[in-house]
Design brief:
By secondary structure, the chain is mostly helical. The chain is built from 22 helices and no strands.
Length: 536
């Protein structure tokens, strides 16, 4: 049975008052983080233009996305470790500078190979922006305002991927694909200037940095195993369905490398006194439960972000820009609801908000299964994301709040790095799961439906005779009418199978959200008045 949460001791030392308004700092760190998260989705729409402009195939051009995600995934979990050893402000500014310069280089890339190389560098620079931004917010705001700070950050990480396809479509339609990279440059320069003037490292980080100065050790083996495992995983998730999984020698090899490298990394890190990633944090059941929940959150957010736009593009004739607009209403609703969630986190324990959030998200997913067909309007497609946003708004802030409960202050950077990594990997899993399940279940439903389309069934005979007679009266010969009838019925079977496969995906996401609800009982109660006050 969980003990009652600790109350804040009025005689305990208080954190020093920042010399800059915390909300100004929140705006500054959110600026670069927004551009970094935006870059994970904005390039999707521009891929055909990149392939055409650089004289390459669309398959080869997709490495522009994969390379960024791989580099990003490798840096994310070690950002806390790097912040301590390099100084958090110094590391953050280095990340912004690398991201900005590499964005410009991506824009001027003369070939696909050079573009992929610069995207790797861009992904490495961007990998530190999300977790360090979150760690800065945690150290800047007093505990009672931390929920509101996480709400601001939540707007960034949820809004950016939702509007990315729309912005990418508008830029490529009206300008050139290179401008999706050029626009990062002025934002990066502004961010660099503001960070240098407004942000300072807290005293505990400066003390750690002074302690390590002169005898800093680098865990090359741990970093190597981590890079190998996460790099292999990201390539498998991004390219697996496209290359038909085990039928691709490269994917099959990486699917073997990933678990081996991961096991070696875990064993190695658990034997180090100063690991590059502190896996012992997962012994804390509260952190482990929050980590599982943020992974599931990533699956839902990115999976459903792909779900609706892909459906309306494939079967309703929407272009990329219009498909992206189906996500805007839900994204705008999240901006409204995130501050509400921040207020609720100061009045209700985070675990109960998380339970309600997963329940509402599951219900929204099940709602999709009862309304999805080929006659849905734009409004209906947009409302899928709107209903989903109600539940998601009650997840991001409370999960992030719960992840810090019982965690020492000096571990804050590692917590934010791990949480952001798991959310991003969850996003990759969500996208891969949606695409794979749609392909696999479409084939399954096609086989099932085809078994009912036989001359042994009276309904089939009535349909074919009626359709064939109608086509014959329209001027086709008897043989042409028969061929057209067979083709139309076959296309109808394929279309219905595809719709059923999307419904299966919505069911799966809904069930996964329900399975997350029991984890709420593993979370320790937090004191809503102090947001992240430690609990025993």
């Amino acid at each position: 049975m969980a003990a009652a949460p600790k109350t804040i001791d009025p005689h305990a030392p208080t954190r020093p008052k920042p010399r800059v308004n915390p909300w100004v700092i929140a705006a500054v760190v959110s600026l670069a983080a927004f551009m970094e998260v935006l870059d994970t989705s904005i390039a999707n729409v521009a891929l055909p233009y990149m392939a055409g402009g650089l004289a390459s195939s669309l398959d080869d051009a997709s490495w522009v996305l994969t390379s960024y995600l791989v580099a990003n995934a490798v840096v994310l979990p070690i950002s806390g470790w790097l912040s301590i050893r390099l100084g958090r402000k110094r590391f953050y500014m280095a990340c912004v500078m690398i991201f900005t310069i590499s964005s410009f280089l991506c824009g001027i890339a003369p070939s696909l190979g050079m573009l992929i190389l610069f995207r790797v560098i861009q992904g490495a620079g961007g990998g530190g922006l999300q977790p360090v931004s979150q760690a800065i917010l945690r150290d800047t705001f007093p505990p009672e305002q931390l929920g509101a700070a996480f709400a601001v950050y939540g707007m960034v990480v949820v809004m950016a991927p939702a509007i990315g396809p729309t912005i990418g479509g508008w830029i490529t339609d009206n300008y050139q694909w290179r401008w999706i990279f050029y626009m990062n440059v002025p934002v990066g320069m502004l961010s660099l200037l503001l960070v240098s003037r407004l942000i300072e490292d807290p005293e505990y980080l400066r003390a750690q940095f002074r302690k390590l100065r002169g005898h800093m050790s680098i865990d090359y083996v741990g970093i190597g195993f981590l890079a190998l495992s996460l790099g292999a995983l990201q390539v498998v998730l991004d390219k697996g369905q496209e290359d038909n999984w085990f039928y691709s020698p490269m994917i099959a090899t990486l699917e073997v490398i990933f678990p081996i490298a991961l096991v070696l990394f875990i064993v190695w890190e658990l034997t180090r006194s100063k690991p590059v990633m502190d896996l012992r944090m997962f012994k804390n059941r509260n952190f482990a439960a929050a980590a599982a929940m943020i992974f599931a959150y990533g699956v839902v957010v990115y999976g459903m972000t792909v779900f609706t736009p892909q459906y309306v593009q494939a079967y309703m004739g929407y272009d990329a820009k219009l498909a992206g607009e189906t996500q805007l209403q839900g994204a705008l609703l999240l901006i409204v609801l995130m501050p509400v969630a921040a207020r609720l986190v100061r009045r209700i324990e985070a675990r109960w908000l998380i339970g309600v959030g997963f329940l509402l998200t599951a219900l929204a997913s099940f709602y999709v299964t009862t309304n999805l067909d080929l006659q849905i309007s734009f409004h209906t497609a947009a409302m899928y994301r709107v209903w989903l946003s109600v539940g998601l708004a009650l997840l991001f802030v409370p999960i992030n709040t719960a992840s810090y409960v019982g965690v020492p202050e000096e571990k804050g950077g590692e917590v934010s790095g791990t949480i952001n990594l798991l959310r991003n990997i969850g996003g990759s899993v969500g996208i891969s799961m949606v695409e794979t399940m749609i392909a696999r279940r479409e084939q399954f439903h096609q086989d099932v439906l085809s078994a009912h389309v036989t001359r042994a069934r009276q309904a089939y005979r009535n349909m074919t005779s009626g359709l064939s007679a109608d086509l014959f009266h329209r001027g086709l010969t008897q043989s042409q009418a028969g061929a057209q009838t067979t083709l139309r019925i076959y296309n109808s079977v394929i279309t219905q199978a595809n719709v059923l496969s999307y419904i299966d995906v919505a069911w799966l996401i809904g069930v996964m959200c329900l399975l997350m609800m029991p984890l709420v009982l593993m979370l320790k109660p937090n004191n809503p008045k102090s947001a992240v006050a430690s609990a025993e």
